[in-house]
Amino acid sequence: MSHAAHHYQRVAFDRKRELFGDLRGTVVGTGANFTFVPAGVRWIAIEPNRYMHSSLRRAALASGVDFEVRQARIEDIDIPDRTADAVVSTLVLCSVGNQQKAMQEVRRILKHGGAFIFLEHVAADRGMMLRCVQHCVQPVLRCLADGCRPVRDTAEAIQSAGFSEVSIERFRLPLGPLGPHIAGLAIR
Question: In this structure, are residues 89 and 186 in contact, taking their beta carbons and an 8 Å threshold?
């Protein structure tokens, strides 16, 4: 795990533990969350970068998670309709090509009553100097951080996706221009 990933795990640890502690059944998500997954969960990791698959397998094995990895993007998940009890997204929606398509896929694979659980960095409020800074660093982040776009209004994409219930908390983590965050739950 990179220095930046270790730092993020430290500053987001309590929030992740709270968000993911009650997961059950089949969960679709990224692999950076194995530490927080309760025993008995079946985890299907969606990872477009095949070079990450072996490290995900090692992390899953070390955590004792029932795990499989699929090379896919969240906008085009190769999982049947209504398969997942939960979908977990952490630091994913900043870099997807189409947030609306990603939300459609999340809803499609969730069982009725299933939960979309998210922890994402987002754009600072309009008119804030931090948002200007985010615009300035965006070209560099897109190149160095798998297409990251820090000025996305991810909360709006989630709220407009057609979930029956959405709960979003806004807060800041000590991560400079990537500090503004949202966390929450959306029910299918």
Answer: no
Give 140-159 as a DSSP string. HHHHHTTT--TT--HHHHHH
CATH number for the domain that contains residue 78: 3.40.50.150
pTM of the predicted structure, to 2 decimals = 0.93
Between CA 97 and CA 58, with CA 144 as vertex, the angle to 5 degrees is 85
pLDDT value of position 43? 93
42's enclosing H/E stretch is strand 42-46
149 CB-near residues (< 8 Å, 6+ apart): 94, 95, 138, 141, 142
Could you tell me if 45 and 30 are in contact, meaning their C-beta atoms sit under 8 angstroms apart?
yes
Range of the domain at 51: 3-187
User: How many structural domains are present in the chain?
Assistant: 1
89-119: pLDDT as tens digits: 999 999 999 999 999 999 999 999 999 999 9
Confidence label for 178 from pLDDT (cuts 50, 70 and 90): very high
